[in-house]
Amino acid sequence: MKTFQGKTLSWQVxxxxxxxxxxxxxxxxxxxxxxxxxEQFVGVLPRLREEAHALIISSARTEGFCAGGxxxxxxxxxxxxxxxxxxxxxxxxxxxxxxxxNALDEAPFTTIAAVNGLTFGGGFExxxxxxxxxxxxxxxxxxxxxxxxxxxxxxxxxxxKRDLGNAVVRDLVLTGRxxxxxxxxxxxxxSQVTAEGDVLRVARQTAAQLKKFDRGTALAAKQxxxxxxxxxxxxxxxIFCDLFMRPAVEKGLRKFVESNDALPxxx
Length: 267
Description:
- The chain has helices spanning 32-44, 71-80, 83-105, 122-128, 156-163, 166-175, 181-187, 199-210, 215-225, 230-244, 247-258, and strands at 3-5, 9-14, 17-22, 54-59, 64-66, 110-115, 118-120, 132-136, 140-142, 179-180, 192-194.
- The chain is an alpha/beta fold.
- The mean pLDDT is 92.
């Protein structure tokens, strides 16, 4: 299969580059529907190994790349479960997310996140699975989870620590502030900043450049310079699940869910 058109995303193989495009209103929030189609996608990655040299993940939404996890859905699902089933249900969801993120992180070719607009929470974590992040100059990055009494739960902290100095990691996680594409580039998160609306074209140019290199050598280099922090990722799951079950988090999530703000995740 070289093309897929789902309800929340689509992908196709074009001249050796897989182009995965998120398209789920309002801003590609990752809930059960997005997760299910991402699981379908990572399931075919091994079969694409011989015909693809690169993967680009981008967004069809003008609002941004991805606003993060679908907290409204997660809250409602947890409330519908009997109390004794809430933790197992949450853990199952988070472990499924981690399995997808790990599969993208270890994809057998070079991966590029072409980000625009909001790249918050789980969306930021999705971008961090990629080998390169290319950003529209209007992109903004943020981990707002502490405002709800949580930490990033989709693998963000270990992956950010892998790539950056701890001072930047602590600033992003502990303050919850957002940073623009230029600041993200200077911090080492973003490899290239493009003009507004130009990010996918530049990502495609970069993918075309990658085609010149031997795939086996590129994969060996990737595995050497980008180890996956499995132990820390497992620890993150434990901390996130423990925090999520606390009454203060339930109160914060209820306030978030009941908010009438159009974009309650904005700083």
